[in-house]
Design a protein that fits this description.
This protein is mainly beta and about 260 residues long. The protein has helices spanning about 1-25, 200-205, and strands spanning about 40-50, 55, 65-70, 75, 80-90, 90-100, 105-110, 115-120, 120-125, 135-140, 145-150, 160-165, 180-185, 195-200, 215-220, 230, 240, 250-255. Strands 1, 2, 5, 8 and 9 form a five-stranded mixed sheet that branches.
Length: about 260
């Protein structure tokens, strides 16, 4: 009996020692320290202005409106074309740029790291003033390629640029929801001829078949395409063209 009691006492002592050792290893939980400072930064950039012929405009650079997409915040360019959004927290931003008498643009998915400055420059162009006259067409006897063409209303001492949208409905236009493909064409100074040559295979690649009706809409456009268009990443990466003349010239024909 004494032997059993002795063993029991030894087990109790061992358990007490183990529990004490475990407690001393873990120790009490410390209090959580204060959060670090919230970093902010400045989103800024220059907006450059371009005329319809592709020339840089260095006057009247103040007053462009830059909107921070998804917020009510706006900034305006100064006389050098500079805008600033100070005090922004770390994140991803997009800005929309506009000015009366110019096409608009967007700069999207700008990564801003707090604690510094992030640069996002933009370009906008004056719209073309050349309205495209009525369109005509011809089809190559051997190739089946389509030429959509017109005669421009007046000579210009500078080169001009035009765009032709192709769609499968009569509503085809510059709207990204209505066109399938597009073609741009620059004509030389003093030229009156505007031809768009469309390979038949391009129409097949766009989903057209022989006998189907294809629709066209043509506009004048600012010659600096990087200032007359932007890629809308929120719309399947489609290209949005601005700085367009109005109204467009439209026509349709049967795919050969």
């Amino acid at each position: 009996m004494k032997k059993i009691q002795l063993i029991s006492m030894l087990l109790l002592i061992a358990m007490a020692f183990t529990n004490c050792k475990k407690d001393s290893t873990e120790g009490p939980q410390g209090a959580q320290g204060p959060a670090g400072p919230l970093l902010t930064g400045t989103l800024e950039g220059y907006v450059s202005l371009w005329d319809q012929y592709g020339g840089r405009i260095l006057t009247s650079q103040a007053g462009d409106t830059i909107s921070l997409v998804g917020t009510n915040q706006k900034a305006y360019t100064d006389s050098t074309g500079l805008y600033k959004f100070p005090g922004l927290t770390t994140g991803v931003y997009s800005v929309a740029v506009s000015k009366p008498g110019f096409g608009n643009t967007m700069v999207q998915n700008i990564q801003l790291a707090g604690g510094g400055n992030t640069i996002a420059n933009a370009k906008i162009s004056q719209p073309s003033t050349t309205v495209v006259p009525a369109l005509l067409d011809s089809i190559g006897a051997l190739t089946g390629n389509i030429t959509v063409y017109t005669t421009l209303p007046s000579n210009s001492p500078q080169a001009r640029t035009f765009i032709l949208y192709v769609g499968n409905t009569a509503s085809v236009s510059a709207n990204t929801a209505t066109y399938l493909v597009y073609y741009t064409k620059s004509v030389n100074a003093n030229s009156l001829k505007l031809p768009f040559v469309i390979p038949k295979t391009d129409l097949y690649d766009a989903g057209f078949v022989t006998g189907q009706t294809v629709y066209f809409a043509a506009y004048g456009i600012g010659a600096t395409l990087t200032a007359s268009a932007f890629v809308d990443y929120n719309n399947q990466g489609r290209t949005v063209f601005t700085a367009l003349s109005t109204p467009p010239a439209t026509m349709s024909l049967i795919v050969p």
